[in-house]
Amino acid sequence: MAPPLVDFMARKPCNETILEQLRRGHAKFELVSDPVTSISSHYTQRSPTTFLSENTHLFFARIGSSFGGGSAALKKMERYSVQKVTGDGRCLFRALVKGMAFNKGIGLHPRDERENADELRMAVKEAICDNEQERVQYEEALVAITVEESLKRYCQRIRRADFWGGESELLVLSKLCRQPIIVYIPEHEHTKGGRGSGFIPIAEYGAEYGKGRRKEKPRKVVRLLYSGKNHYDLLV
Questions:
Q1: Structural domains counted in the chain
Q2: Which parts form a coiled-coil structure per UniProt (predicted)?
Q3: DSSP assignment, residue 193?
Q4: Which of 40, 122, 128, 183 is most buried as measured by Cβ atoms within 10 A of its Cβ?
């Protein structure tokens, strides 16, 4: 089971540094009771799919020196409509595909949605597993992967169609697709059994692409809903 939090003082360490700090006791695992507010170039955050058990409250793991300085925009409740996504193991990739198509005013046939979702998964595999030179561009994703398992094992698993995507894949795809992504949880999960009908943002990826860069137009955000047991839907 994945540790709920990895906390260390280095700003942008490599994988070997993190593992050595863990061995020496300089890095540690720690529990946090509140959702993580954001991800920036200085911090890496674990996936909302990281749980202690089904009966505990949500805990999110993050690699970073502190939790201070989070964006106020990521602490408020928001309201959207939920577009359900098929729960076949591809849900993260399906939700991203649906969201990017929706932002362009395009409706996808279920077959196209599935095929495009698999293409996103394989794009991550190619970036992380097949090209050593390209891999170094995704240091945060590599850290998130290798804290839990070996890169070899990860590269074996991601080839499967039922591979469950999460934090590492969002880190990669936000860059590959130049796509701003925000992940939410239902308000009632955040309030520990409350009945709120809104959504709380907990993680942000690729925010720079939503601002426009050079001659590139700003990209519309894709909003993903993480809820229940390892499932993503789309918010619109």
A1: 1
A2: none
A3: S
A4: 183
Label residues 125-155 b or e (16+ Cβ within 10 Å = b): bebbbeeeeebeebebbbbbbbbbeeeeebe
Angle at 209 between CA 121 and CA 212, to 5 degrees: 150
88 is known as an active-site residue: yes
pTM: 0.69
Whether 207 maps to a domain, the answer reads yes
**Residue the block writes with tokens 């993580």:** 36
Structural domain contains residue 1: no
Please pick, among 14, 88, 112, 130, the residue that the annotation labels catalytic: 88
Q: Is 233 one of the catalytic residues?
A: no
Digit-coded pLDDT (tens) for 176-212: 999 999 999 998 877 666 566 789 999 999 999 998 7
Residue 16 lies in a domain: yes
pLDDT tens sequence across 46-63: 444 433 333 333 333 333
Is the residue at 61 inside a domain? yes
- Output the domain CATH number for residue 68: 3.90.70.80
